[in-house]
Design goal:
The protein is of the alpha/beta class. It has two domains: about 10-65 and about 370-420, Urease, subunit C, domain 1 (Roll); about 65-355, Metal-dependent hydrolases (TIM Barrel), CATH 3.20.20. Helix content is about 35%, strand content about 20%. The protein has 15 helices and 17 strands. Strands 1, 2, 3, 4, 5, 14, 15, 16 and 17 form a nine-stranded mixed β-sheet that branches. α2 (about 100-120) packs across α15 (about 425-440) and α11 (about 315-325) packs antiparallel against α12 (about 340-350). The protein is globular, with a radius of gyration of 21 Å.
């Protein structure tokens, strides 16, 4: 069981902050209060009264929903610095993936979760695409049990599984029974999904079998597409097969046609957009155009990290880059499209992410009745002040270093700029030990120096 002694749920009155609610009925309150009780947002307004609640002074803070991340390969978080010049994400993944032991998975996922909390992220999508054994899956889920934030755990294949070999759902069934049944250690914070290789990475017949098996179990599905024009994924074909919908998450879909985007809109199918990855690894044309066209079509777009060897665990930076890249340009088919707005970026990092994970009724906005996932950002830090437009400030100026307080499901995990619910030194020490162990097992270019 997780040790929640450092993070009990309480009654908190967050008083006098600039409230960025992401709820259209509430909007932005220049000076407002948020009342949290037993893990629930009870009231958002001005001059809220709650004599029994602990008051948190937010007079110099921005109060907003915790950020929601929708595509993160957490098993490799401790390998973030394995990369080198000419030796980037895919070579390092392929050379190390078989050398992670279950203990390394636990430590890697725990590192990613603690880093996410520090960065103001209160919901993640653990897109586990190297599930090597039942013990590896258990290790990841144990890290989620101890990580204290909301998540989807999407069970997937092991890395480099042959294209003609279907995913074995027998262990997914075991995980569903043991980790998500009655009395689950994960309680209501984590839910189960499945990520499938899709027709770009598996044979079409294999994808069809895996999709059927997932749908029979009622599991939400996620798939990658190639970040190139050679993708075999066609949303129109997925729609015809009855696969698209709010519980079918597409990622990296740079090569979508207008017909594909229209199919996604008709079926309320969301997109996860990994800004760093789309720019570094995408060769299907300019990712700026893909983002503009998805938003203009009305697709629900969320933001994601992908892998730490590609991007930092930092959705503030992702928002900033999305805003900077989201401009129409003369002489192209984006010339008449609307630019990405500050509001668009905030939604992509909060409520759109919640929608993509089926959690829009739970998190993603400061709405009474939702769970208390929220963050406080210092307005008077030297890189933030002076605040004028609060949305512009969050998108353009804020970094994880400005996150003062993180509350997840009513528990304070970070306060006064310090992580208070985790043994951070131990998390880092164990991640370093596992990093060195994986590198020793892999050998070759990654072998640790003997000096």
């Amino acid at each position: 069981m997780p040790d929640t002694s450092k993070a009990p749920r309480g009654a908190y009155l967050i008083r006098g902050g600039t409230v960025l609610s992401v709820d259209p009925a509430i909007g932005v309150l220049p000076r407002g209060d948020v009342l949290v009780r037993d893990g629930v947002i009870v009231e958002v307004g001005t001059d809220v009264q709650a004599p029994d609640a602990e008051v948190i002074d937010a007079s110099d803070m921005i109060v907003m929903p915790g950020l929601v991340e929708t595509h993160f390969h957490m098993w490799s978080a401790l390998g973030r610095n394995f990369v080198d010049e000419g030796y980037e994400y895919f070579p390092t993944k392929w050379e190390t993936s078989a050398h992670y032991q279950p203990e390394d998975f636990y430590r890697s996922v725990k590192l990613g979760l603690v880093d996410a909390v520090n960065a103001g992220i209160t919901t993640v999508h653990n897109w586990s695409h190297n599930t090597r054994s039942p013990e590896h899956a258990d290790a990841e889920l144990a890290a989620h049990r101890d990580g204290l934030i909301r998540a989807r755990y999407s069970y997937g294949h092991r890395d480099l599984l042959p294209e003609d070999e279907p995913l074995d759902f027998s262990d997914i069934d075991r995980v569903s029974d043991e980790w998500f049944g009655n009395g689950s250690d994960l309680a209501h914070l984590v839910h189960l999904g499945v990520n499938l290789r899709g027709p770009d990475i598996a044979e079409q017949a294999v994808f069809d079998v895996e999709s059927r098996d997932a749908r029979e179990r009622g599991l939400p599905i996620s798939i990658h597409t190639m970040q190139s024009g050679s993708t075999k994924v066609r949303a129109t074909e997925l729609e015809a097969k009855g696969l698209l919908g709010p519980d079918f998450l597409l990622c990296h879909y740079l090569a979508a046609t207008q017909e594909d985007r229209d199919a996604m809109v008709r079926t309320n199918t969301p997109l996860s957009f990994s800004v760093h990855s789309e720019m570094r690894l995408g060769d299907a044309g300019d990712p700026r155009a893909a983002l503009l066209k998805m938003l203009a079509a009305g697709v629900s777009v969320s933001l994601s990290i992908d892998a730490t060897s590609i991007a930092p665990i930092n959705l503030f930076e992702a928002m900033h880059i999305a805003w900077n890249m989201g401009i129409p340009w003369v002489g192209t088919d984006t010339a008449d499209l609307p630019a990405v707005s500050f509001s668009d970026c905030i939604k992509m990092a909060t409520i759109n992410g919640a929608q993509a994970l089926g959690l829009a009724d739970v998190t993603g906005s400061l709405t009474p009745g939702k769970r208390a996932d929220l963050i406080l950002i210092r307005k008077n830090d030297v890189n933030v002040a002076p605040v004028v437009n609060v949305e512009a400030t969050v998108v353009r100026s804020v970094t994880p270093a400005n996150v003062d307080t993180v509350i997840s499901d009513g528990r304070i995990l970070k306060q006064g700029g310090k992580l208070v619910a985790f043994d951070v030194e131990r998390v880092i020490k164990e991640a370093e030990e596992s990093s060195n162990a994986v590198r020793r097992r892999a050998g070759g270019r990654l072998a640790p120096s003997l000096s």
